[in-house]
Each structure stands twice: as structure tokens, then as C-alpha cells.
Design goal:
single chain; 296 residues; alpha+beta; Alpha-Beta Plaits; 8-stranded mixed beta sheet; two-stranded antiparallel sheet; 36% helix; globular
């Protein structure tokens, strides 16, 4: 369970106590944008089955900096100057948070969702499966707290899922649909001295970032907008991942769920692994041109 501390206030707002971000945060300002929350699955088992010395080694070699790697596209854009969205991040306990700091174009989902998908993939391949949710709206940030309805929405949506995966919250899904409309009327702009049309550049990415899927939740199956975090990153971000034959999906998921001495011998973990295998096989069998965001 997440150690993400949410304090509800009147009117549905929230206060979240956090550690410092991996990116310098200006004190006391409002943000209107996407917010992503990701929990490390098997965190308790990780703690219980490793000595403190082993945990420190795992943290330093595996966990530390994985959020930074994601928001900089695996360290290829360290200052995020080539990204349409500047994304901040921080980690504490078993939780990783991504938040939108600035967007250079009127397509605010441009690279935020891409970076969220990359975070999922990088963590999974390091034996740290994540479960996440992305919300959208106005929230307040500084170095010590996060306030706003998007934080509560992401927290509640994340914890209801039964797999290693991530979905858009209702607020993010609505904003994502608006992004599709905005792209149809986007104009050419000057970006670092180059005339580009961001809609054209982002189309191949955005239309393949999200898929409608029967997401397993604690209350049953829900049709949700899920991040294509596995195949998307391997195809477009050029991560060196070999082609996966169908018969090795279970082995791959089992290996990453159990890495770092984590135990997988209980029904809850087995169910999450089975649900994750199903989703990854679903992604691998879908032609890339059909992985579109619309529900029709």
C-alpha cells in the first residue's frame, strides 16, 4: 500500500506531504496540468526479505534516479530543452510522482504521458514493477506539499488496480480527448530555431500511447484508458529490448516481480502477475496502427 500521505480538506482539496523533488520547485505556485502517481509493487516484501545493507544497495543501484531517467528520456534530454513538457518528479518510500511544470505548446499531454510510460518500462525492467494513475487539473506545489483534487483522484485510482500498469483518471481522460481536438487545429511554431508543427510531430506518439482495455480492479473489470508502457517505449524510444515470443511472457513477468528477493507465493501477487501478463500479450498482438486513443 502506498505511503503517500493525503489529507482531505473541505471541498475535496488535499494536502500531500512530500520529499524534495528531483527538479527544483518554485515555492508556492499553482499548476494546471497532468499529475502522475506510481506505487512500487511488492515494497513490503522487498523490505522484509533483504537486510538493511542489501536494501541500500538496491536503492542506490536500482531505485534512485529512475524518475530522473524517465523525465529526461533516459538521460538523452537532461535539461528537458527538447521536450514540449517540462516534467518534475520526486520519490519517497514506495511512491514516485511526476508533475507537469511547464508546457511550451497548447498540447499539454505531449510528452508527459510518454515520460510516464517510460518510467513504467524502466522500472519494470529493473525488477521494480509499478502501478500508477495520471490525473489532470489545477493543483498547488512547493517543496513541502502538494494541494488539490488531482492528487486525491490519482491516489484513489492507482490503489484500486490489480496489476502492474497505469491508467488515466477521468480528469486526464477528458483532457486527453481535448488534446486530440487541439491537434487538428495546431499551427506551425518555432521550436529552438526550427519551424515545426507539434501536432504532426506528436501524432505518431500520442495516438499509440493509450489503449482502451478491460482493466482489472479490486471491484471487477473496468474499461479504462491504459498506458501502452511496454511496446510503446520499445518501439519509439529505442530501448534495446529483444522481440518477445508469447511463451516467455509469464517467465518475464515472474522474473521482474520476484527480483530482489521479493516473494510471489501468495494469491494476491499471483493475480497481479497474471493480469500483467494478459495486458502485455494484448499489446504485443495489436498492430501499432490500431492502438488509438478513441473509444470508437
Amino acid at each position: 500500500m502506498s505511503r503517500f500521505k493525503v489529507k482531505r480538506n473541505q471541498g475535496g482539496s488535499s494536502r500531500v506531504i512530500s520529499s524534495k523533488s528531483t527538479k527544483e520547485v518554485s515555492s508556492g505556485r499553482k499548476v494546471t496540468g497532468f499529475f502522475g502517481l506510481f506505487d512500487i509493487l511488492g515494497y513490503r516484501s522487498l523490505i522484509e526479505n533483504n537486510s538493511l545493507e542489501e536494501l541500500i544497495k538496491i536503492y542506490n543501484s536500482v531505485v534512485s534516479g529512475i524518475d530522473k531517467a524517465a523525465v529526461t528520456i533516459n538521460h538523452t534530454d537532461e535539461d528537458q530543452s527538447l521536450s514540449f513538457d517540462t516534467v518534475g518528479s520526486f520519490m519517497f518510500s514506495d511512491t514516485i510522482v511526476l508533475f507537469q511544470e511547464y508546457s511550451t505548446i497548447n498540447l499539454p499531454g505531449g510528452t508527459f504521458i510518454l515520460k510516464a510510460a517510460l518510467l513504467m518500462r524502466l522500472a519494470f525492467e529493473k525488477g521494480i514493477p509499478l502501478r500508477g494513475a495520471i490525473s489532470y487539473g489545477e493543483y498547488y506545489i512547493d517543496e513541502n506539499c502538494y494541494l488539490g483534487k488531482p492528487i486525491v483522484e490519482a491516489y484513489e485510482t492507482e490503489k484500486m488496480q490489480e496489476w502492474s500498469g497505469a491508467v488515466l483518471c477521468n480528469s486526464a481522460e477528458q483532457e486527453y480527448a481535448l488534446d486530440l481536438d487541439r491537434r487538428s487545429s495546431a499551427k506551425t511554431m518555432n521550436f529552438h530555431g526550427i519551424e515545426i508543427n507539434p501536432a504532426v510531430m506528436m501524432s505518431q506518439f500520442m495516438e499509440n500511447l493509450i489503449v482502451q482495455y478491460d482493466v482489472p480492479t479490486k471491484s471487477g473489470i473496468e474499461i479504462r484508458s491504459a498506458l501502452c508502457w511496454d511496446d510503446y517505449v520499445s518501439i519509439f524510444c529505442k530501448v534495446d529490448v529483444p522481440f518477445l515470443e508469447p511463451h516467455i511472457f509469464e517467465e518475464r513477468v515472474r522474473e521482474n516481480f520476484s527480483r530482489h528477493n521479493k516473494k510471489i507465493d501468495n494469491d494476491s501477487v499471483r493475480q497481479k502477475m497474471e493480469n500483467t501478463v494478459g495486458f502485455l500479450r494484448f499489446l504485443e498482438t495489436r498492430p501499432i496502427s490500431t492502438r488509438i486513443a478513441n473509444k470508437g
